[in-house]
Write a structure and sequence with these properties.
Helix content: 55-70%
Strand content: under 5%
Radius of gyration: 15 Å
Largest sheet: none
Number of helices: 6
Length: 111
């Protein structure tokens, strides 16, 4: 109903990623329930939600989390996470996530 309300896309993006990551041999359940979505659509929705002034950091945190545990967390995402930490050194949630998922397992020193 409100396509300009960006926080909606955080939850919607997560749902579409989960729906899109269901294995082919279980897709019949999605059809039975009438659920549609794919990974690319979900990732785009999460990216869109990161533009929100109030909830953008939560969407970005969710995006990194989904990349690690549902999709593939590669060097590009790791660099983006470490850059986010440098730009938002007061946000301990990003430090916690980087400590948990960064392949380098080290974060920039907090000042």
């Amino acid at each position: 109903l409100f396509p300009q309300f960006l926080p909606t896309y955080k939850s919607l993006g997560c749902l579409h990623i989960v729906i899109g990551s269901v294995p082919d041999n279980h897709r019949w359940v999605l059809k039975l329930l009438g659920l549609k979505g794919n990974i690319a659509q979900g990732v785009a929705e999460l990216r869109r939600a990161t533009k929100d002034k109030e909830w953008g950091n939560e969407a970005l945190l969710t995006s990194f989390f989904i990349q690690e545990f549902v999709l593939k967390f590669d060097e590009r995402e790791n660099t983006e996470l470490l850059n986010t930490i440098e730009n938002q050194s007061d946000n301990l949630s990003f430090y916690w996530l980087a400590t948990a998922i960064s392949p380098m397992r080290r974060c920039p020193a907090r000042h």
